[in-house]
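To: structure subgroup
Subject: Chain for Friday's discussion

All,

I'm putting the inputs and outputs inline so they're searchable in the archive.
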Amino acid sequence: MSYVTTILILVSTSKPLAAGNDTVFYLGRGIYDINEVARLLRRGKMRIAGWTRERRNKPPLLTEELAGLFSFWDLLSLRVIAELTRRGVSRDHIARGAEHLAQTLGTDRPFAHRGLATVGEGFFAKIADGWEDAEMHGQLAFQDMIRPLLEPITFNDSDMAAIWRPRVGVWINPAVQAGAPCVEGTRVSTHLLANMLDLNEPDPADLAEICDDYRLATEQVRAALDYELVLAA
């Protein structure tokens, strides 16, 4: 079953799933399979699977929130995990950090919480020695690592991530098109536009027709195509 087909099935139902003591609804939470998570984060599918599966008798760094599918908060949490891993932070340190932050911030998705920017800095400083051993060159680069990841995110009143703007003119809003990347302020997905136009050199006539059909400005469509071009690289 394709990612798009899965979304169409899930968004057409309000059937809840049990998750711990809470009831989780698909609607408004964003819905991603592992292929789409890998595409949006520009990471290998096997790497994503490694973070979300038990490894060497150690629990996963993150378990899918939607019974085998990932939510918007999962997506952003994996984005933070991906960056920490890229910078040489060990799996054990990430797990310890997530556990500490979860207790401090009162959420099981601390990497999607606004408080990560401040509380996380204080905690991860305590394990700076481990980071230095991982080619951090003796410097704790928390601000360089984490703060830029939070800057394009809008948070809700509960301090949890609500909208991610991965590129100017593009938003990922879990309440719109099941969280698929769209032209900001609209429900027009960037993937749809990419399928209709050439990413590198869209035909001017086709571009004008698309803009007219979807009531978009040329700059909006080009921003969407540029984003899809980056994902395809």
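Points worth raising on Friday:
The first helix runs from residue 3 to 10.
Confidence is low (pLDDT under 50) at residues 1-24, 128-139.

D.
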